[in-house]
Hints:
alpha/beta; 8-stranded mixed beta sheet; 5-stranded antiparallel beta sheet; 29 strands; 36% helix
Amino acid sequence: MRINTNVSSLGAQEAAQNTNKAISSALEKLSTGLRINSAADDASGLAIADKLRTQVSSINQGIKNGNSAVSLLTIADKAMNEQSKILDTIKTKLIDANTASTSDTGREAIRKDIGKLLEQLDNIASQTNYNGRSLLADVKDGKLTGKNTDSLTFQIGERNTDMIQTAQINATTANLGGGEQVMSKVKAGESAKLSNVEGGTLEVTGKSAAVNVTLSGNLGKLTADTGALVLTVDPEDTNLMAKLKDITNLTQGSGASKNQFTLAAAATADLRAIDFDSVKLTNATATNAKFSVTETSGFNIKNNELGSTNDLTITAKQDIKKGETSVVANSNANQSLTVTGTAGLNTIITGNLGSFNSSVASVIEATNSKDIAALQKLVDDGVTGITRGSGNKFNLTAGAKDLGSIDFVDAKLTTSAAGNFTTTNTKDKISITNNSDTKITVTNMDAKSASNLESLKNLQEGELTREVAASFQAVVNDSLDQLNGYRGDIGSTINQVNSAVRNLMTQSTNVKAAEAVIREVDYAEESANFNKLNILSQAGSYAISQANATQQNVLRLLQ
């Protein structure tokens, strides 16, 4: 028997301490309702539960986004519903104006009323917003810009790919009602008048007919394309130089800036600085013709053999750097090719001279309605290189010039000479086709006919005639179709968002339940465990008491 160390008491004390710790943990679980209160409780379970908690939070935010999206889209839908009512009223007024029982005075009153209604339609488009975000049109500094709104996108879900998007909207008078204007089968000598048409592209193409094109009337801005001039010489046509006459009134221009060419209000607009995609020059008569291409830093000739009957001479302001200095050919015609420019050229020339074609945006300046097929004089001041073409051809490529745009006033389009033309405009594009390779771009054409609601709004006093009222009825119908299209997209998006929200609510419930299984405590199980630990704690205290009492028996041995 020992006195200094009471092993029994120490063992009982250790057991009691462990029991007390377990009781503390059980009480924490019972008081918080969570099985995992720290990483020490269940490290792997904590990681899984935290990830599920984040997923639930993300899903719940997606649900909030969806509800906000529905509110936003509902605002847009209700606003466009009011715009539809305005258009309904305008349609009835146009019908009223297109009847013999309505006097000119009555039609003028209708015009004013329609103008006010269309102003309100634009007001609705500019004022409708959600939290400062314009919904029906692009607005900057409180004013309509004429552009579409950006597509509305909503993240309805936990991932950044869970997006729902609407179509772009532009419910303004400038955009609504822009239908098609088509003039087909316009024969040579007849006029195809292009008035009140939106900006777009006017393409003129032809193959075998000589065509005169005159621009007059309210065309607005005429924009010229830019590009490179390519001259192709075909060795099969040995008579080209004898047939090709001087070309006059054809210049490239030099660095014209935008809006530089402006005519007075009463001026007549002819073709000036027009960019042609392709100009074909054939069967002209001339001898000793010469092409000039400026060169100041030298060039290289890698091949000097010409198997033709034409003589080709190349000269420059600088010394020829490499290769041969001349070319050999058999010819009775004294033709020459002068190559000049601003950059060194790597040149390969083979074969004899043949047909001549220019393409890719050569710039034409013609006054007094010059015949395109008879344009004179070619001046190329921006050639940047000579390259070999297919077969025995070689190409001369000219650099592009920035032509900008040209303002035209008092313009119309007329066609004369052989061939049929088809003119088509769909909102922003006009194409005139006659199997040629010319291209003209027309933008910002002043609109006065039944092209959109803005032209109806801008009618002046006395301009609302029966004919105009009849033509604008179709514009209103087109506008209603556009609005219904916007509203249809909005309605479909609302249904899509509502469906997504319902699905997210189901996901949130299930994921939250999965997290609860891992994180939360089972009270039935934990309460039973607590009762067990409580009993063990009481028993441990009794055991410590008995262990301490056994040491007192040593005193009896000392009596």
